[in-house]
Design a protein that fits this description.
60s Ribosomal Protein L30, Chain: A; 2 domains; homodimer; Phosphoribosyl-aminoimidazole Synthetase, Chain A, domain 2; alpha+beta
Chain lengths: 322, 322
């Protein structure tokens, strides 16, 4: 049994809806309708040392990353984060470590005007963080099942950098010093896309954050929307210098840990999206389009290429940090 | 640094309020106001194997207990649980275990019409559950700081049974077979007090669930309300057969893990409360009263007795399961 079979078998069956619960399990967040112009989006994420971050990672990095991971769910819903609950388990309470952790944690919260409204703390054998985040918007969240045939497929930021940094950590490759610096920065400090996605929410059909790998996360949109896609490998934004490495395709197609947003939007909205991205200084690239055929076809230099490796599954990969 | 210093230093400073956030960190749940007659109460709890339950505990027991712990926060707010998010980490996904776990989990949710609206799953070295629960009521939740001088102090159910069962598990004592059966049932299957507390919410001033020990949890109410109390040891409801054990006072005063509710209410409401409890078949006992003096005075046979042991702290006790 893998992670997605687990979700389908045990979590999704309870996925009823009602007048308030407009969207339950199976998207980046659930959506609760307060009234006709106020919607709350809520999601939860657990991060465990040596799984989602290295145990010896700096407390700044762990604090920032744990928030970025959760904020990206809000970005993918086109929601603005408002409230947050934090549960933590530590082997012991180390004041120096905690001072630094909460300094960063509270700085990030403050910069988005997000309030910590609940928490729990306990002792555990390994550092474990669980964040529940609630965001707000004036509409139903950007859902995975809203991709329309003919939509352009867009990606924010650059893809594959975090995965390249991890491969370096795992000694699978040896990045040049300046390459590693850029990739490591992307891994520990993914840019939060909340502002852009909130502003662009009415220009977008379907959206999803890229946590498990671009192809797998795009796959969630395609499956939910019952459509296919044609993706141009050479248009996926990354770093030129990484292309020389044998793992490049793995990194950009399956790397995961990017916490960028992949979304589909009507062709007519291209100009507005590009303009909005330029104003917000957000790198935005079109990587393909949504098709009627329910397959995801990968193109390279106008030829169909095959690519079989799957994206990340928390219970199947051998890797220890992701 | 202990658990409460941690909460005070790192979590509470961000405890601002606004027109929507009426109550932040520091109570059983935060309260968000949707409109004048609709309030949502939200809280989060992390449970870790060998800390909050035995690793070899049955999946039914773990499922039930993880929900009871969270429902008791809603009961203590006088709120009705509505939505729930579940994050889980397991060493591996064991289908047989999960089938039983989710069978119980979903049965309990269904019996309260609570919907699972979000989740996360990952691999971790030890079974870890994090639940975030959202409840609803037509008023501000029952807060810890609302105890009034002259209020009666009430306790639901029976206290100290779970602690006695734990002492038996730890081989600190040897309960008789029939005593252990009753105490173990209280430990693994604490009765959920949501119904009674929701019905009684307008008769009550301050409330708190008893998770860390009666004296410590009452202490939270007294400190927050800047009042004191006189508690009669012999009126604390427990099992007669337990009184012969040397640890009896520890169990009822500091045992914790009871997940019963301690609350204060105006003397005038006694009749209504007793009548409501009788209708709902909820054992309800008056154990003392709120005083102007800010101390908590413990009485036994009309004499003041001193009792020094503190309640449970997740980072200070040597015990491994609580």
């Amino acid at each position: 049994m893998n992670e997605f079979e687990f979700i389908n078998q045990y979590l999704k069956p309870s996925n009823e809806r009602d007048d308030t619960l407009l969207l339950g399990i199976g998207d980046d967040a659930a959506t609760l309708k307060l009234n006709t112009h106020q919607f709350w989006h809520i999601s939860t994420d657990m991060l465990i040392a040596d799984r989602h971050f290295f145990s010896n990672e700096s407390p700044e990095n762990i604090a920032y990353k744990s928030l970025a991971v959760n904020f990206s769910d809000m970005a993918a819903m086109g929601a603005w984060p408002k409230w947050l609950l934090l549960s933590v388990a530590f082997p012991q309470l180390d004041k120096d470590w905690l001072d630094i952790f909460f300094n960063t944690f509270n700085q990030v919260l403050a910069s988005y005007h997000v309030k910590l409204i609940g928490g729990d703390t306990t002792q555990g054998p390994i550092t474990t963080l669980n964040i529940t985040i609630i965001g707000e918007s004036d509409r139903l969240g950007l859902q995975r099942n809203d991709a329309q045939i003919g939509d352009d497929i867009w990606v924010t930021g650059q893809i594959g950098l975090a995965a390249a940094a991890l491969y370096h950590h795992w000694d699978k490759i040896n990045l040049h010093e300046d390459e590693f610096k850029i990739c490591e920065q992307a891994r520990v400090h993914p840019t939060i896309r909340v502002d852009f996605m909130f502003q662009a929410r009415n220009l977008i059909h379907a959206a999803q954050d890229i946590s498990d790998g671009l192809l797998q996360d795009l796959g969630h949109i395609l499956t939910a929307s019952q459509v296919g896609a044609k993706v141009n490998l050479e248009t996926i934004p990354s770093i030129q210098a990484l292309k020389k490495y044998e793992y490049y395709n793995d990194w950009v197609l399956n790397g995961g840990d990017d916490y960028e947003i992949i979304f589909t939007a009507p062709k007519n909205n291209q100009e507005k999206l590009v303009s909005l991205a330029r104003e917000a200084s957000v790198p935005l690239h079109k990587i393909g389009e949504v098709t009627k055929n329910t397959e995801c076809i990968l193109m390279c230099n106008d030829k169909i290429v095959s690519y079989s490796k799957k994206g990340f599954d928390h219970f199947e990969e051998e890797t220890t940090v992701y």
